[in-house]
Write a structure and sequence with these properties.
With about 90 residues, the chain is mainly alpha-helical. The chain has helices at about 5-15, 20-25, 30-35, 45-55, 60; strands at about 5, 65. α2 crosses α3. The longest helix has 11 residues, at about 45-55. The two termini are about 35 Å apart.
Length: about 90
Amino acid sequence: MPITVDIDVMLAKRKMSVGELADRVGITPANLAVLKNGRAKAVRFATLAALCEVLGCQPGDLLRWEAEEAAPAEAYEPPGKGATVS
């Protein structure tokens, strides 16, 4: 997934444990672990806001976009089209 969650970085900077963060944010340690380990498919804005409030940071401090490796351009062929170039 191209979105990376950097909660570990903020936890280290704040010298805070995962359990303490989970308690202060109001989510289970298991759900925080899913988010922290990059297995979450979504995050509620309310949860993101609570994380930012507790950690004293901005959403961009917790979330980072990384480009995925793309397939070579010549390997793509639209459905029903030949590889003819005019």
